[in-house]
Amino acid sequence: MALHLRRRRLVVPLLVCAALLAASAAPASAEGRTTRTSWTTSKAFVGAVAALRAGDTLELAPGTYDIGAVKPTLHQGTSSAPIRLTAADPDRPPHLRGHLILEDADHWSVTHLKITATVPDEPALKMAGGTGWSVTDSEFTGAASTRDYANVAIDSNRYTRTAPSDWSFSDNCVHDAAPRPEGDPAGYHNLYVNAEGGGRGGLITRNVMYGAPGGANIKIGAGGNTAVRGAWGVRVEYNTLFDAAWQIFLFGDIDDISVRRNLLVRSTGGPSVSTGQYFHSLPGGAVRVDSQDNYGYQLGGRPTFALSSPTSSYLDAGNFEGSDPRFAVGCGRFRPTEPAAARYGRYGAEPHDGTPAMVCTAAWAGETRRPA
């Protein structure tokens, strides 16, 4: 293991769309340590992560690293001094192979990584509990081989009984979830927000997700138990979701969920359940889900855009199926050439209604996005 430690002001920015992430973005950090490292054992990696304190940055050198199943003991950052786990060279993200668990990662920033799940029945990344954390500009895959229920799991910490809050998952590429075994009623997803016990405040934005033949690209809900409260106050905005049984699956006791300006393409769940958004067993009463102004293509199902269980309560306004968006498939791709579709999803721009135009940088795609 080669470690180079120096004290300086942190210069690695979290690349996000400030207009969308202002609520979760951290102020400039206090001065801390920056460690640049490569390693030959998972124990060395765990030790380097566990050594981080508020304001510190760990920069991972390019290369492929077999980490196995690891759960480092974490110290907490603060809003003014977050802890950063990132790449030494964002153009050459380190490739971690295994299963990484980050528990109660308060004010942590995880960015510019590629993680491939290789541990049987485990996801590539699990974020358990924690507040004010962000996962950005990274790639996650491998669940098709490990047969886990997700490539990325956002979960509660089962030991401290704390649910995640005020988190963000943005500008990532998540792909190739596990297929559903024959006769297995469970779903297998790309991103699963399984925050049992609640938690409030989360943002899923500017991501590309594809390849979930046995489930959803995004599922939000507390497992299969309708009696357990799931995540509340989650916004799902400007994502491109492609080739899944359902693009978005919302289940059980969730509340205040906003689904807006996503690009949803090709649902393959079959004629009875294939749909863009599947709302299942949501409690009745007040509106729990606000789904507006999303663009769909080849969603199938009945109806074609949203399928709901009888007791679900949701607002469906301005959603429509359009023409073929015409894009290439893969991380860093999915840029529609159909003009109407280009306003939605990963590369979509806010409507020109007098609000300031946004500029977002996608590090893994190596490009700057500007409104048309």
TrEMBL record:
Coiled-coil annotation reads none
Q: Which keywords has UniProt assigned to this entry?
A: Signal
The region annotated as signal peptide is 1-30
Keyword ATP-binding tagged: no
Task: Classify the source by domain of life.
Answer: Bacteria
The protein's matches in InterPro entries, at most eight in alphabetical order, are given as: Pectin_lyas_fold, Pectin_lyase_fold/virulence
State the protein's name: Parallel beta helix pectate lyase-like protein
